[in-house]
Design goal:
This protein is of the alpha/beta class. The protein is built from 11 helices and 19 strands. The chain has 2 domains: about 260 residues, Zn peptidases (Aminopeptidase), CATH 3.40.630; about 140 residues, Glucose Oxidase, domain 1 (3-Layer(bba) Sandwich). Strands 1, 2, 11, 12, 15, 16, 17, 18 and 19 form a 9-stranded mixed β-sheet that branches. An 8-stranded mixed β-sheet has the order 4-3-10-6-7-8-9-5, with no helix packed on it. The chain binds zinc ion.
Length: about 425
């Protein structure tokens, strides 16, 4: 009786493994990877390492081999991390971190009350005015923050407005003011990014909702820590050997890092970008372990994508398999939606076009996606440096459907509909499974 029960349980368990690679398991992966515990999978609170370890453990549990002696490929790069309490106030009124203000990731720490010095957009493009401000406030500038209201820009000449935009963009990396930092007044928070975050900057740069600062306010307070230190990043690399051509590789990639955190309570969950792609590649690994392919299938989970494709660039420069033996590579980034189908980047010519045409045939046969769209190559995700080394590579992202805001704190698991997830999975497992 006991024995019989056990064997039924085993059979049940087995079918569970075979059919486990769907959006239900994907949901579990996305839920964990985008949770507060991982603080946006950046350097702060070691979120990136927690995510790497989660992926490694999953690959190991599926029985996927490490690509070299171990799953991790390591490289080092300086990075900022903001941990602990983050407080902001305007004239004593509390500002809500994340909602009312956001601190650029490369900002110098601030821990005090600062005088607010207003600089108009027209003053900002006038070097004479800048010198005057530096002179007039010489004594208090180190204890001041320059306020530029970017919601109130009225240049008569287009060329002045163009210059203003250029000066404002440059301000983030080097300021002509001898102040502790810059506050930019905005209508809504700009799209977040990590560009330029490996270098020590000489200032703090903070976006504040313009309606949270009154024209009467004379002071602001900011308290937060931010430190630049070397950080070891890991690419997580696994493989399932091919049954006929083990020296030829089909490579499936995604990035698992995201934008990290702004202190203890604000983080960028990155469910759509790119916990969804990780869940997809994890499911692919589980699937191909059960249904081996004629070619070896390699799974690469990159770090450092948000800081400028660091992980994939490192892999291409230090490949763990001969790049010339890659039959093709598919990069999955932003898999959370799909009501309007998928976009294939780098699919307008060569091998990319061939892949597009093959996918189209399978899609028409199986009726999975409303549309497969094409665009030419761009340096917008981890496929890019492979294409620079002549590896046939395309990048897939979903179009339409409910997902959270791009590079925003609203990119949560709840906002990720995964509408076409199972269908995209079916499309790619079918195509790769039929490789002759
Ligand atoms: Zn991404």
């Amino acid at each position: 009786m006991k024995k019989l029960f056990l064997s039924i349980l085993c059979a049940g368990g087995l079918s569970l493994i075979v059919y486990a690679q769907d959006s239900t398991t994907a949901r579990e992966h996305i839920k964990y990877l985008s949770s507060k515990e991982l603080h946006g999978r950046g350097v702060a609170y070691d979120g990136e390492h927690l995510a790497a370890e989660y992926i490694r453990k999953n690959l190991e549990s599926f029985g996927v081999e490490p690509l070299s002696e171990e799953y991790f490929q390591k490289y080092e790069k300086p990075a900022f991390s903001m941990e602990g309490n983050v407080i902001g106030k305007a004239e004593g009124r509390s500002l809500l971190a994340g909602e009312d203000f956001r601190i650029m990731p490369f900002s110098q720490p601030l821990n005090d009350k600062y005088r607010l010095i207003r600089v108009s957009p027209s003053d900002l493009i006038d070097n004479k005015k800048i010198n005057e401000i530096n002179k007039k406030y010489a004594n208090i500038l180190p204890h001041s923050l320059i306020y530029i209201d970017n919601t109130n820009v009225n240049f008569k000449k287009d060329k002045d407005e163009k210059k203003y935009k250029e000066v404002l963009a440059k301000l983030k990396f080097s300021s002509p003011f001898k102040a502790a930092g810059i506050i930019e007044g905005v209508d809504k928070m700009p799209t977040w990014g990590l560009a330029g975050t490996f270098h020590e900057s000489n200032l703090a740069y903070i976006y504040v909702k313009a309606d949270k600062i009154s024209h009467k306010d004379k002071s602001v307070e900011f308290y937060y820590n931010n430190k630049l230190a070397d950080y070891i990043h890991y690419n997580v690399c696994g493989m399932i050997p091919g049954t006929e051509f083990p020296e030829q590789y089909i490579v499936l990639t995604c990035h698992y890092d995201h934008l990290g955190a702004m202190g203890e309570n604000v983080y960028f969950p990155g469910a759509h970008d790119n916990a969804s792609g990780c869940a997809f590649v994890l499911n692919m690994a589980q699937y191909f372990r059960e249904h081996p392919c004629k070619y070896s299938v390699v799974f690469l989970f990159f770090s450092g994508e948000e800081s400028g494709l660091l992980g994939s660039k490192y892999f291409v420069e230090n490949p763990l398999i001969p790049l010339g033996n890659i039959k093709y590579l598919i990069n999955f980034d932003l898999l959370g939606g799909g009501n309007d189908g998928i976009m294939l980047v780098n699919s307008t010519e060569g091998k990319g076009l061939e892949l597009y045409e093959r996918l189209k045939v399978f899609n028409e046969e199986l009726q999975l996606l409303p549309k497969i769209s094409q665009r030419s190559n761009a340096a917008n995700s981890d496929h890019y440096f492979f294409t620079k080394h002549k590896v046939p590579a395309i990048f897939l992202y979903t179009m339409g459907g409910k997902v959270g805001g791009y590079h925003d704190t609203s990119d949560t698991n709840e906002n990720c509909s995964l509408t076409m997830f199972d269908n995209i999975f079916k499309l790619f497992t079918t195509m790769i499974g039929k490789e002759e």
